[in-house]
Amino acid sequence: MAGQHKNKLNLDRLAKIWALAERGDAGEQAAARNRAEALVKPHGYTLADVPDLLLTEGYLEDEPEPSAGGFTFYDMSNPAHQRAYAKAEEKKRAAWRMANRAKIDEVLARYGSEEAVFASTAEEQAYDAVIEPFRKAGGPGKCDTWDGEHFSPSVRVRAALASVKPWPDTIPNAIAEYEYWEKLYDDRNIADSNRQHNYLSQGADFRRWALGDLINKEIEARNISDVIIRLRFQEASQGTYNDSAAILRDLERLQATENLKPGFGGFGDIPPDRGSPAISTESLGDAKNRATSETQNVGNPHVMGSSDLRSDESVDSVSPLPFILNTASKRRAEVERILNTPEGSRMSLRQVAEMVGVSPTTVMKVRACLLKQS
User: Fold this and answer.
1) Each residue's pLDDT tens digit, 317-343
2) Nearest to 128, CA basis, from 187, 205, 184
3) Measured distance CA(161)–CA(214) in Å, rounded
4) How buried is residue 188: exposed, middle or buried, by Cβ count under 10 Å (0-12/13-18/19+)?
5) Which residue has the higher pLDDT, 7 or 147?
6) How far is residue 54 CA from its own chain's centroid?
7) Mean pLDDT value across residues 142-158
8) Residue 285 clears pLDDT 50, i.e. is over it
9) What span, in angstroms and rounded, lies between the C-alpha atoms of 30 and 33?
10) If you write DSSP's letter for every residue of 18-30 in order, what string do you get?
C-alpha cells in the first residue's frame, strides 16, 4: 500500500489533477485520469481508489464543523450543516471502503454485479406478495403499516408468510433460515459501503423478525444443545432478544424429563464414566447441515454458496456459530430499542451511535421514522 513506496504520495497534486479529471472537458478528463493513475500506481493504489483516497485524507470543501458532541438532530434544519454532515459521512464510508476492499470485491464476485446483489430474490417477491393484502398506506409523513404493525408481523401476517414456506419447528432449523437472511442483509450492506439501511423487502424482514421470536422463546428446546443455541442467540442480539423465561422453562422441562430416567438423577448427577452430562443425540453440526440443506430449496445461491454458510461446515456444541457476529440489522434494532426509551429519546445522534456501533446517519433515519409513527 502507500507505505510501500519511499516517496510520499503528493496528495495536493493528486487533488488538482483529479479536479480536471472530474470537471474538465473530454480531452482534459482523459489526460488527467492517466496522470492520476500514473501518480498513485507506485503507491499501491488504482484509479478507482482515487476518490476514496482524497476523501479519507480530508480533501473536502469548507463547511461547518461538528461540535464536541457531533451534529445533532436539530442541526439538520440548516442546509449548510446538512451538506457538511453528508460529506463527513461520505468520508467515513470512503475510509470504510478502503479498509474493506477485499470484502466488497468478494461479494460482487459472488453475485456477479452490484445490481445482482440488490436484485429482489424469488423469496422476497413471494413474501411481499402474500402480505400485500394487509398493507395500509401511511398518510402524509407516516410509514405504511401491515395489519396495524410497523416492525413485527402480526398473527395474520405470520400465517400468510407460512403459506409460502412453513415455519421451522426446531431451533437449529430456525437458526439456519435466520442466518440466511442475515447473510443476505450483510452482503447488501457491504456492497452499499456500510450505510446500514434496511436491505430486505418488507415480507422478508417480517419473516426474519418472526424467526428471531421463534429462536428466542417460541420453539420448544429438544435438548441442552438447543438451550445453548437459544442462549447464545439472545446474548448475541445485545438486548433485542432476551426472553430468559424461555431458558428457564426449557431447563425445568428437560430436568424433569431426565429425572424420570432410571439411574440418572438429573443434570447435577453426572455418571462416573463421563466427564459431562449428555448434550444431544444429534450433533449441532449434523443438525445445522440438515437445516441448511432444507433451507436451500428456496435459498439464494449467492448467499447459500458463500464461504461462511457452507452446507458441509462442522459446528460443535461449544464453538460460536456464524450468527453470533453482530450484524447491521441487529444494530439497527438496538437503535430502535434505545430511542424508544425515555433516556434514549434525550440522547444525541452521536451518543446513540457510539453506544450501538452505527453511524449517526442510521440513528437519524431511525429516529425520523419513529417520529413519523408517533
Assistant:
1) 333 333 333 566 777 777 887 887 777
2) 205
3) 14
4) buried
5) 147
6) 28
7) 86
8) no
9) 5
10) HHHHHHS-HHHHH
Cα separation of the two ends of the chain: 50
Share of the chain above pLDDT 90, in %: 32
User: Which is nearest to 362 in space by CA: 181, 206, 194?
Assistant: 194
Three-state DSSP state, 171: helix
- Going by C-beta distance under 8 Å and a sequence separation of 6 or more, which residues neighbour residue 27? none
Q: Which of 251, 258, 249 is nearest to 225 (CA)?
A: 251
With a cut of 80, say whether residue 232 has pLDDT above it.
yes
Is residue 252 within a helix (H) or strand (E), and if so which, with residue range? helix 244-259
CB 59 within 8 A of CB 11: yes
* Sign of CA pseudo-dihedral 356, 374, 195, 20: negative
pLDDT in tens, 61-76: 555 555 555 555 555 5
For residues 116 and 109, give the distance between their C-alpha atoms in angstroms, rounded to a whole number: 10
**Three-state secondary-structure class, residue 277:** coil
CA atoms within 13 A on the CB side of 167: 21
Low-confidence winner among 93-107, 222-236, 252-266, 296-310 (lowest mean pLDDT): 296-310
pTM value is 0.60
Q: d(Cα 242, Cα 368) in Å, to the nearest integer?
A: 26
Q: What torsion do the CA atoms of 57, 61, 66, 70 make, to the nearest 10 degrees?
A: -60
